[in-house]
Amino acid sequence: MILKAENIHVSYGKVSALLGVDIELNEGETVSIIGANGAGKSTLMKSIMGRVTPDIGQIFYRDEKINGLEANAIVRKGIVCVPEGREIFATLTVQDNLEMGAYTKKYTARQLNEHYDEVYQMFPILRERRRQLAGSLSGGQQQMLAIGRGLMSAPQVMLLDEPSLGLAPVLVEEVFDFIIRLNKEKGISILLVEQNAFMALEVSSRCYVLENGRIALSGSSAEMKENPSVKKAYLGG
């Protein structure tokens, strides 16, 4: 077990966002979380990353409790998040954005260049655009940059929050191909939050269905594809 959340409750004032959520991510695994807008998916990601403090519950990374830590400390331990909406630094160059991803690491100049090369090998278009302002990239290229920025800290776990949001269908397929490569080639354990349930189930081995702040269903992605409730609500079946 590389990541575990137990009985997570989060509220914003009088509004409850999460009501006792339990999830597990095994090493080398890709797990998806699907659900409608407002189900609490992004709140769960923010809780794991220390950007939201749970009212109740605990989060463990490699059996070490991490809730209560600052986000930068969580990144140093080996967890990164590619946030919903990408949140790149639009007025910085592509390479400056990547350097920001290494902010919590004390790399030598040689190590930093090695990490640049690793990202550029995965996303060759970013090498071509490395001196270009990030805000001038296309939506798909910005998503590649956001993932590349996350890779710069050499994560063991990557949280991906709605990576297909706002992308054309052809780019959605490309981004999900990159997700498969992150898991298979880089050995990164992935927790994927995604409204495109079909694609999420295609790339994950297990799935949680989050509804109104609670885990409504969980199981293998193959089982979820055949579940009548999932088909009706998320797969158009």
CATH fold-type name:
Rossmann fold
Quantity of strands, as a count: 10
Tell me the domain tally: 1
- The residue-averaged pLDDT reads 95
Structural class: alpha/beta
Report the biggest beta sheet as strand number plus sense, adding barrel if it closes.
Answer: 6 strands, mixed
The CATH superfamily label reads P-loop containing nucleotide triphosphate hydrolases
Low-confidence runs: none
What count of helical segments does DSSP give? 10
First and last CA, distance: 33 Å
General form: globular
Order of H and E elements: EEEHEEHEHHHHEHEHEEHH
CATH class: Alpha Beta
Strand order of the largest sheet: 6-7-8-3-9-10
**Relative strand content:** 25-35%
Helix proportion: 25-40%
The CATH level-2 architecture is identified as 3-Layer(aba) Sandwich
Please tell me how large the radius of gyration is. Answer: 17 Å
Short description:
With 237 residues, this protein is of the alpha/beta class. The chain has helices at 41-48, 71-77, 94-101, 109-122, 124-128, 139-151, 169-184, 197-203, 221-226, 228-234, and strands at residues 3-12, 15-25, 30-34, 56-61, 64-65, 79-82, 157-161, 189-193, 206-211, 214-220.
Describe what this molecule looks like in 3D.
The strands form 2 sheets. A 6-stranded mixed beta sheet has the order 6-7-8-3-9-10, with helices on both faces. Strands 2-1-4-5 form a 4-stranded antiparallel beta sheet, with helices on one face. Helix 7 links the parallel strand 7 and strand 8. It has a single domain, classed as Rossmann fold, CATH 3.40.50.300. Helix 3 (94-101) packs parallel to helix 6 (139-151). The protein has 10 helices and 10 strands. It is α/β, with parallel strands linked by helices and 237 residues long. The radius of gyration is 17 Å and the shape is globular. The chain starts with a strand and ends with a helix. It is 38% helix and 26% strand.
